[in-house]
Amino acid sequence: MRYLTAGESHGPQLTTIIEGVPAGLPLTAEDINTNLARRQKGYGRGRRMQIEKDQVQIAGGVRHGKTLGSPIALVVENKDWKHWTNIMGIEPIKEEENEIKRQISRPRPGHADLVGGIKYGHRDMRNVLERSSARETTVRVAAGAVAKKILSELGIQVVGHVLEIGGVRANEVSYRSLKDLMEKTEKSEVRCADETVEKKMMEVIDNAKANGDSIGGIVEVVVEGVPAGVGSYVHYDRKLDGKIAQAIVSINAFKGVEFGIGFEAARRFGSQVHDEIVWEKGKGYSRKTNRLGGFEGGMTTGMPIVVRGVMKPIPTLYKPLQSVDIETKEPFQASIERSDSCAVPAAAVVAEAVVAWEVANAIVEQFGVDRMDLIKENVERVREYARDF
Ligand SMILES: Cc1cc2nc3c(=O)[nH]c(=O)nc-3n(C[C@H](O)[C@H](O)[C@H](O)COP(=O)(O)O)c2cc1C
Ligand SMILES: C=C(O[C@@H]1CC(C(=O)O)=C[C@@H](OP(=O)(O)O)[C@H]1O)C(=O)O
């Protein structure tokens, strides 16, 4: 499967076309909208989220609630567009009107403005920020919602949640099951399962905001029910952990990724890292621990996939950092209209979506048929085989 996205942050709409989704998958706008709404929530967001109410229009590939096997086209309208029709017009403009189009010549440190401007020759850096904006993650979540539907048909669940904000860390065993994790994070304003740290996380965000600053954190995605052997060790670009790592770091503002105990593995002996193998009649193989986060040799082990990503603080700050006006070459102190102070809770939903996409894609590729019912049969057969291997 593959998908492309198009659309600017303050343009008329965001679009994705998803190709290769098997036929016969139950899919409704509601399945996608619930995920879009989850992405919009979360403490620390700016005023833009009060303007938008993301709703998908399915514009192709689905009939009577089931996928057809043809490309799926999804569209999400930008409600803010009506305030930007002048600045974001599609038609060419007359030279004398140029001034009212509010050129951006002051790049923000940490955002894509300056480098994107140099790369594409955009002296009006609005041409960069419109597309580098994380508004685009809306349709990545829409594509991820389709992936999640495929996974749920196969008994595979995916949940993204917040582990840390600004140094305040959740207790990692604060949930009993994936269902419990999902319910707890849905109730939490910061999408964190540990109620004891929720208020502290909100305080950290409040403080950052009060100081005109921003704050980042760590999100975790857990996937349960994936059969052993998804992905492959035979070639670098078929390793599923590698694909997931790329997907996580592709999220705006994400700077690092780890699986299981991750970077902590550098400080432990092998006997305290590798997960011992056990076998039980009827259940098959499992591991006593899951420190490697569900991967060996680029393949799933059958244990839960546990992957984390670190999000840097939002670059647009009310407290200005030094930068240079590209027209005058003079230093300036930036002033801004609006921004998120913290988007880690929203990013947990984006991370969930991109991980779901990679896992679903690997499964569809591996159990490669065009029909959902046959994929289900194939996955079941492989699960059975693995149990008694
Ligand atoms: C959900 C979400 C919301 C974001 N909101 C903002 C924002 O309001 N202001 C901002 O400057 N950056 C925001 N960012 C981060 C920027 O999009 C990101 O830093 C920028 O695209 C540059 O990419 P890089 O940080 O990966 O280098 C957000 C990121 C995510 C995932
Ligand atoms: C619009 C979204 O996030 C935006 C991501 C973003 C950025 O620079 O990444 C900047 C802000 O845009 P604006 O300047 O219009 O407020 C965020 O609101 C969204 O998540 O849907």
Automatic annotation (TrEMBL):
Name the source organism: Aeribacillus alveayuensis
Supply the name of the protein. Answer: Chorismate synthase
Subunit structure, as described in the record: Homotetramer.
The record's listing under CDD domains reads: Chorismate_synthase (cd07304)
Catalytic activity entry? 5-O-(1-carboxyvinyl)-3-phosphoshikimate = chorismate + phosphate
The family classification in the record reads: Belongs to the chorismate synthase family.
Q: What sort of enzyme, by top EC class, is this? A: lyase
One Pfam entry name:
Chorismate_synt
